[in-house]
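User: Some background: our group keeps a shared notebook of sequences we're curious about, and every so often someone picks one and asks for a predicted structure to add to the entry. Today it's my turn. The entry only has the sequence so far, pasted here. Could you supply the structure so I can complete it?
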Amino acid sequence: MKLHRLVFALCVAGTLSAVVAPSNPHAQGAGSPETRAARIENGLLPGIVIAGRPLPAKPLAERMAALKTPGVSIAVINDGRIEWARGYGVAETGGGAPVTPRTLFQAASISKPVASLAALRLVEQGKLSLDQDVNERLTSWKVPESDLTKTEKVTLRRLLSHSAGLTVHGFGGYPSDAAVPALVQVLDGRKPANSAAVRVDVLPGSIWRYSGGGYTVMQQLLMDVTGRPFPALLSDLVLTPLGMTDSTYEQPLPEARRAAAASGHSTDGSLLPGRSHTYPEMAAAGLWTTPTDLAKFLIEIQQALQGRSKVLTAATAREMVTVQKGSYGLGLTLEGAGAAAAFGHGGSNAGFRCAMTAFVEGGRGAVVMTNGDQGGRLGSEILRAVAAEYKWPGRQPRVKTVATVEPAALSPLAGRYELRPGRVLTVTLEGGTLFVIDGKERVELFPESPARFFELAQEFEIEFVKGPDGAVSHMLLNGQQRAPRIAQPPAMAPSTM
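Assistant: Of course. Here's the predicted structure to add to the notebook entry:
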């Protein structure tokens, strides 16, 4: 069900006690890394399960085929070290080389936390300040001033925490046959850039709003302050010190590394034209890497929190995992509390989906990288399997109870809902059951109440909201995305021919 762009997320809530089947592969205890990896490979878990039904654990190979994702790479951290890393499938559909732990994938937005570490190292070296107006250090380009920036400034802290009030959520990249803009052209939205100008349109510091544009300003800031190309700078500040030898911010990927890299694939499993897009927005989306190298990054943050890092102080690491705005630290998404406190990030580039997560305490974590546009769903299922196998706290499928709702209460929900211009979802009532039709896809909706439903295809939660007149006014997806109800199209007049 293609309701909106999938994001890697570990589902927190519920309990498995009501749904774990006796054959649950993760209920067998510990074992060797090989044994644990094998159980994970045969025990991928969904995000939603129905109370009273067996836990539908499925094999990795089956889910890769179903989600048309040719290749997957996984690294698992346990007891503060990489316990195992494996590759599955192929780097490119149609007989490509097998994926190995050293196969490179586009990290997409996971580029951001790695780039953040470089910026924070410059702060520790006294070359940057977290709370200084970045325009005082930018030389090649400046954040355009406005009434919004008279009193509150765009600072590095706000750039890293998505609270600088800057526009441009993300970037689509550039196909292999397209001209690639310079970074200043991206920042100003000038051709051949395919994204809008990065501008302040909200008071800096007032809200959290994800902004790849802000990280692109950070990229220019680091280049201006050091006078160095971004890939070389990141290699010296982060990649080399952490032993991330299979990683680079070079865009496009140099030909010498091409043979070691996976190719991107579209939702239908077809090869992305040109194999991958180029991202001049390197800090936001340009890292090529492996799960093993990203696991080294996560371990370094864990060690820094304990005062044992070779590149970062404990105080700075603590700021990284302290909420700055929303649920975001400095470069990292944050979730949970106490023993369940964790940090990480997800990533979504054309043809690639990935995720990483690690606990603040306990030396545990995992990284999953895929080379398919449906890899987000797959990665989430893998991470739930890892969580179940390693008994991570608070990381379980959500358990849902199906309510009994009379057809008379369901009938008023049927209709057409506009997700966005040109994208309409149709809800139908058939034999006492609601279905949502999205293009060629037809998905059953399970009721939790007369107004709240869920579905198992893409694991969306849907609420039908009534207006002041008592009639349904819109549909709310996952509590965020609003789809207004629209009129039925006029009946087609009979042909006179």
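Suggested note for the entry: The first strand starts at residue 48 and ends at 50. The radius of gyration is 24 Å.
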